[in-house]
UniProtKB/TrEMBL annotation:
Keywords: Cell membrane, Cell projection, Cilium, Flagellum, Membrane, Transmembrane, Transmembrane helix
Gene3D superfamilies per record: OmpA-like domain
The organism's place on the tree of life at top rank: Bacteria
Annotated protein name in UniProt: Flagellar motor protein MotD
Keyword Nucleotide-binding: no
Transmembrane segments annotated in the record for this chain: 20-37
Cell location: Cell membrane
Domain OmpA-like: from-to ranges: 127-247
Classification via PANTHER family: EXPORTED PROTEIN, STATOR ELEMENT OF FLAGELLAR MOTOR COMPLEX
Skewed-composition ranges (Low complexity): 274-285
């Protein structure tokens, strides 16, 4: 009986492709993980960078011990009125030779003409305060209070305009009525207040005296447009910087918000006499 010859199977010369494909897959996964680890939030990086520069450039501050918890200021000296009572009586609030509110208004209009013309910023005012209203989309991402890269450049320019003056600055945050429920922002109250506080912090980082400033969040409860449309909700998502003539005016605005305040009512709360309107006329983009 003849023995059956064993047939040899042909050798597969392409088995290396399986190992090569596995290697490429693992290499791709490695680089994806490395990229995700290396990406950082630009806004947080700039906040930390500015804070470190402030510490190391200030010898007195660098020598002090690092406090545990939040360091509370011992006292805050109220801002003094920019115009004396005698000057108000003789010439009126808006008739001084160098009105700080008029100067601030003019400087803001000159620096941000492009934003005003595109309706992303509005500048308006009267004899007691100037309002600089910014669309929240310019400063923050959706549902977030961390300033964007554009916010750093915008607020730096605003701070350079405000630094030479002693006027109080009242920063107000507003949202639309769409509900938000996150661990960080349970409601629109927290979101609007955090956004206002972020702008105050940026102003202080760029040299504006913190004792001049205050922040407040109004949530969704002071809309300037209907929340029934996307355009109206976009208008309601805003941050307003109110530069007041003196500290009493700012305190009178805190109770009602600048959206509901009138010059006559503010003057009554501040205990001042009615004065003729200044050259800071309502208007802007």
């Amino acid at each position: 009986m003849r023995r059956r010859r064993h047939t040899e199977e042909p050798e597969n010369h392409e088995r290396w492709l399986v190992s090569y494909a596995d290697f490429i897959t693992l290499l791709f996964a490695f680089f994806v993980v490395m990229y995700s680890i290396s990406s950082i939030n630009e806004g947080k990086y700039k906040v930390v960078s500015q804070a470190l520069l402030g510490v190391f450039n200030d010898p007195e501050r660098a020598m002090r011990a690092i406090p545990i918890g939040e360091e509370q200021p011992l006292s805050i000296k109220p801002a003094e009125p920019l115009i004396k009572d005698s000057e108000q009586t003789d010439a009126g609030l808006g008739q001084t030779s160098a009105d700080p509110l008029q100067t601030i208004s003019d400087d803001v209009r000159s620096a941000f003409g492009d934003l005003i013309s595109s309706n992303q910023m509005t500048v308006r005012g009267n004899e007691l305060w100037v309002e600089v209203e910014l669309n929240s989309a310019l400063l923050f991402g959706s549902g977030d209070a961390m300033p964007s890269d554009a916010a750093f450049a915008i607020i730096e320019k605003v701070a350079n305009i405000l630094k030479p003056f002693a006027n109080p600055v009242h920063v107000e945050g507003f949202t639309d009525n769409l509900p938000i429920r996150t661990a960080q922002y349970p409601t629109n109250w927290e979101l609007s207040a955090s956004r206002a506080a972020s702008i105050v912090r940026l102003l202080a980082m760029n040299g504006v005296n913190p004792g001049r400033m205050a922040s407040v969040g109004y949530g969704e409860y002071q809309p300037v447009a209907s929340n029934d449309t996307a355009e109206g909700r976009a208008r309601n998502r805003r941050v307003v910087l109110v530069i007041s003539r003196n500290l009493e005016v700012r305190r009178s605005l805190t109770a009602t918000g600048s959206a509901n305040a009138t010059p006559d009512a503010a003057m009554r709360r501040a205990g001042t006499q009615s004065a003729p309107p200044s050259a800071v006329a309502a208007g802007g983009g």
